[in-house]
Design goal:
Helices cover about 40% and strands about 15% of the residues. The chain is an alpha+beta fold. The protein folds into 5 domains: about 1-160 and about 180-225, Ubiquitin Conjugating Enzyme, CATH 3.10.110.10; about 225-310, Herpes Virus-1; about 315-355, N-terminal domain of TfIIb; about 365-410, no CATH class; about 420-483, no CATH class. The chain has a 5-stranded mixed sheet with strand order 1-2-5-6-8. Strands 4-3-7 form a 3-stranded mixed sheet, with helices on one face. α12 (about 365-375) packs across α14. The radius of gyration is 43 Å and the shape is elongated.
Length: about 475
């Protein structure tokens, strides 16, 4: 007995030294404990959910662990095997029953020796192959009906056989096929091991728990690795780093915190993307919340909502500066009514609602209307004509073309601003409106007494430039007379 006791203590101490507190918990009142065993999945393992609209696949690296609860009898390992139960959140009772029988078989092959490490190795490394579980693993979404069907598949209820045995003698003509089916029900029932425990409610949906566990384990593995930040080039643990989910690029939290703070303060909440050149991955709101303070995250959340609303065609903002409430707009209408201040406004020009009348155009807007109209598609041009009126559009186009011609062919008088066109002659000009002399080249005002001194003075920027840009004959006469 003392040898058994010593072997038990050595085995329990070895388990405690190999596994951390989350994986192995030793019982306080008895020689036993609980071991959580994560099965080793092959690369690219998938979980598939079949549905009527479509079938969805999820990549997983970890499945919820098998839980082995055990108690060591006083005569273990010399005589008796450990007492145990095996439980899981995703395996069926039939599958775990097969594993329980395999553990019994391993004990029979190694009776007299400690067996826990052999059991653990089998469950972690060989259980999937033993059960024939391959990728993709099909998951049944939970429902009361689906739960009953799954329970029937595992437990193979004997209710049918019992009903058959209670039938009247007139039904003695039952076929041999019915008898075989009844025998199969009893046989399947006997194969289910009471030590196999299903932890999942048959009416619950197992998929969220599978995905949540996989994400938690991935984060745990990430936290324990060392990464080199692509910004400061310092190696840090994953627990001090941020990984963009789409591209898997990793940067330290210190660099990303500063980066997020600058972008949010500048209002660029849509630009919290991965710093890797040409990468389009965006930080999730939960990642941003981890790295910035509450005040800055509140600003980020508000601006993100506003920018999202801006992209929605049926949402506009109340134009009153003291309000600015988001307003839902009915389709095919240009009237918005603010739910906060009850202001009725035109959703196009943001002025008070003017019914079927065209939107008023300011002088500044009129100058830009032509370019917008000419570059618009046929649908865009039709919309602008409906909004501003065809006459207004025509006026904007004509005035814009006139303005372009004046800008290209005329210069403004430096005294009164009148547009002056130079057809021919020298660069000494006379304004047709105020009769002021000025230089066509530099627009400088010239003297009434001797306007040509501007072109004869060596200190002048236009020295000897009276006929610059003009073709003249050698016989042209230079004089102080007016052009």
């Amino acid at each position: 007995m003392s040898e058994d006791k010593e072997a038990q203590e050595d085995e329990l101490l070895a388990l405690a030294s190999i596994y951390d507190e989350e994986e192995f918990h030793r019982a306080e009142s008895a020689q036993g404990g609980e071991i959580q065993l994560c099965l080793e999945l092959p690369p690219d393992f998938k979980v598939v959910v079949k549905g009527k609209p479509k079938t969805t696949e999820y990549d997983v690296c970890f499945l919820p662990p098998l839980v082995l609860n055990f108690e060591l009898p006083a005569d273990y390992p010399s005589t008796s095997a450990p007492l145990f139960t095996l439980s899981s959140k995703w395996m069926t009772k039939a599958q775990m029953s097969s594993l329980c029988r395999r553990l019994d078989k391993l004990w029979e092959e190694n009776q007299g020796c400690v067996i826990l490490f052999t059991w653990i190795q089998f469950l972690k490394e060989e259980a999937l192959d033993f059960l024939g579980i391959q990728s993709p693993l099909e998951v049944t979404r939970g429902s009361s009906k689906g739960g009953c069907e799954r329970w029937k598949a595992d437990c193979t209820s004997t209710a049918v056989a019992q009903c058959d045995s209670q039938s009247e003698k007139s039904e003695e003509k039952k076929t041999e096929l019915d008898k075989e089916k009844s025998e199969q029900h009893f046989s399947s029932w006997s194969l289910l091991d009471p030590r196999a425990v299903v932890l999942m409610d048959p009416r619950a949906d197992p998929l969220p728990q599978l995905l949540d566990f996989d994400e938690a384990q991935r984060q745990r593995a990430f936290d324990s690795k060392v990464f080199c930040c692509g910004i400061c080039f310092v190696e840090k643990l994953g627990s001090d780093c941020l990984c963009f989910k789409e591209c898997q690029h990793v940067y330290c939290k210190a660099c990303m915190t500063e980066y997020f703070q600058i972008q949010i303060r500048d209002g660029n909440v849509q630009c919290l993307n991965c710093p890797e050149p040409k990468c389009t991955s965006i930080a999730t709101p939960s990642q941003v919340k981890q790295l910035v303070d509450e005040e800055l995250f509140a600003r980020y959340d508000r601006l993100l909502l506003q920018s999202t609303l801006d992209l929605m065609a049926d949402v506009v903002y109340c134009p009153r500066q003291s309000c600015g409430t988001a307003v839902m707009v009915e389709p095919d209408t240009t009237m918005g009514i603010c739910s906060a201040c009850q202001y009725a406004f035109c959703t196009l020009c943001k002025l008070g609602y003017h019914g079927v009348s065209h939107c008023k155009v300011s002088a500044d807007e009129l100058r830009n209307l032509r370019d917008e109209y000419l570059s618009a598609t046929s649908e865009g041009k039709k919309f602008m004509e409906q909004r501003f009126g065809k006459r207004v559009i025509q006026k904007a186009v004509e005035e814009s073309f006139s303005r372009d011609w004046l800008n290209e062919n005329c210069k403004g008088c430096p005294r009164c601003g009148t547009n002056i066109q130079k057809v021919d002659g020298c660069n000494k000009m006379t304004c047709t409106s105020c009769k002021q002399y000025f230089c066509w080249l530099c627009l400088g005002i010239l003297s009434k007494v001797n306007p040509y001194s501007h072109f004869n003075n060596p200190q002048s920027p236009c020295y000897n430039q009276l006929f610059h840009g003009v073709d003249v004959d050698d016989d042209d006469f230079w004089s102080d007379e007016e052009d």
